[in-house]
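Quick one from the shared queue. A colleague (R.T.) flagged Cut9 interacting protein Scn1 as missing a structural entry in our internal table.

Convert sequence to structure tokens.
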Amino acid sequence: MEMGDEGQGDDAVWQIGVFDSHCHPTDIMASVNDIADMKARVLTVMATRAEDQEMVEKTAKMYPIDFKLDVSNPNSRYVVPAFGWHPWFSHQMYDDRDQKGRPEAVEHYRSVLVPTPDDDDFLHALPTPRSLSEFLKQTEARLQEFPFALVGEVGLDRGFRLPEGPSATTGDMGNKTGGSEEEYTPGSREGRPLTPYRVDMDHQKIILRAQLELAAKMRRPVSVHGVQAHGHVFDLMQSMWKGHERPSKRERKRRPDAPNAHPQDDAETDKDLPFPPRICMHSYSGPPDALKQFLNPTVPANIYFSFSTAVNFSNASSAKVTSVIKGVPDNRILIESDLHCAGERMDELLEEIVRRVCEIKEWSIQHGAQQLKQNWTKFVFG
């Protein structure tokens, strides 16, 4: 960081603009009214499950972006919606794209949870599983309605375990995040004890791949959750872009006139590619060495990495996070709050992560804010 930069430039940062690349204010729906009074200019708001798809849509209509230049106005607040099905809730979806129809609920859950549950009370308390094909149809319609919308939050999670009982909706949840006293949106897992049951990884991959294919079809960026599963995420994405890799430097030198041999961003311009053009690994928690596979010059999609204080600087080794952030190219780094409640606390977390990234990258605050704005704009709009 430049000499004398500590504590300066606060107003300039907010004038340049702070862009939250991943957050969940609709988990406390009453908090979305506070977005109008926030310092952050744009929130990229994620849907995760059945209960919040419509709420994200409603919030985006409250703070609409009509065209890209909208976000240049420092006096307005905007929401970019993201529609997706989170891996924590992937068991609630069944794949009916083979026209087989709706399975019996208990048998469905026995087939996608590990170890196989033998607690009938627990199984019967789970929600009626939903049709994947119907969800994809609804999500495509929402993406058409919102031309700048993302697909997200989607992904894979090997550490997640299903919670017990019905979702909690008390004001105690707001206290946990330092936010509103209002109730949580139904379906939240927070505050509930965990069972031993996990969602089978193969089933998670089915739900993730279907959504990545939709993002590819619609040419939309994707926000990806990966916990203890970065290798699985990469392998799945690699299988989608197989045969479309960018040529290596050696190949470009050897065959300068070969297809794709020139530095052209085919993922952004080709409408028929089978993978999303831009992918963000949100609150990236993988090791520094794992960056190499995502950033390999032959990868045809543009991969971004976002960081939050809530995840990356909570329990993780600061040395590891510092090494990872240093290893991410300057034009591929994003910041986020990953918070479940809009308002002052979200602004505080965003300013904190901007400062941490600037310190690690040895950027001035003003330069860092401008770089992060440019990165978010490129990730969302292309």
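The longest strand covers residues 150-157.
The chain is about 35% helix and 15% strand.
Added to the table.
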